[in-house]
Design goal:
Radius of gyration: 20 Å
CATH class of the largest domain: Mainly Beta
Number of helices: 1
Strand order of the largest sheet: 6-7-8-9-10-11-12-13
Number of strands: 13
Mean pLDDT: 85
Largest sheet: 8 strands, antiparallel, barrel
Shape: elongated
CATH topology of the largest domain: Porin
Order of helices and strands: HEEEEEEEEEEEEE
CATH architecture of the largest domain: Beta Barrel
Distance between the termini: 45 Å
């Protein structure tokens, strides 16, 4: 019985995190933007910054989903998504207003990094602030390892699809013959999202 409760709670949390924002264009000319909380045959309950609004489906002219860039290409010294890389590429798997789940890979001359992670935007203004939790596999001439990585940083749009990122990446580096090592590196890169 406990497993059923755990699965139900997990599905509820995932549904909340993955609720995709939509814009409802109504026949009256008004628009409502928010995440669909519940849906029936005739209505939507939409969570907006002003509370939950019920919209009759007969009043809707069209529904627009908010699309975000899915691809990410970075060049610079290290990266919050692809770790130890001078050139990195990441693909967004799922994104909401504050959460992004991604996979990526990058190269640093004689090293390759593969990653999967979660990016959380905790400030969205003139400059965006974020944190990233990821698992990264690093392989190079000196060997390889798989380790968790925590990144904190800020990003600023430079021009249309171009951004600059500044931050730090902290890795909990495992060693087979000694204790774990906590290593932090600065990161600066320019990236394009498309």
């Amino acid at each position: 019985m406990k497993i059923v409760h755990i699965v139900s709670i997990t599905l509820f949390i995932l549904g909340t995190v993955f609720a995709q924002e939509r814009t409802f264009h109504l026949k009256s000319g008004d628009t409502v933007t928010g995440a669909v909380k519940t849906e029936t045959d005739s209505t939507y309950d939409v969570k907006t910054p002003f509370g939950v609004i019920t919209i009759n489906k007969e009043e809707i002219k069209r529904v627009q989903r908010k699309e975000k860039p899915k691809k990410y290409l970075s060049v610079g010294f290290l990266d919050h998504k692809t770790g130890m890389s001078l050139i990195g590429y990441a693909q967004t798997l799922k994104q909401t207003e504050k959460h992004e789940f991604f996979v990526g890979g990058g190269t640093l001359i004689a090293m390759f990094t593969a990653s999967a992670g979660w990016k959380y935007f905790f400030y969205d203004g003139y400059i965006q602030a974020y944190s990233v939790l990821s698992i990264q596999g690093v392989s190079g001439m000196g060997g390889g390892f798989i380790a968790p990585v925590i990144s904190l940083g800020i990003e600023k749009r430079l021009y249309k699809k171009w951004f600059i990122n500044l931050g730090g990446n902290s890795t909990i580096r495992p060693h087979p013959d000694k204790a774990f090592e906590f290593v932090t590196f600065p990161a600066i890169n320019i990236n394009k999202r498309y």
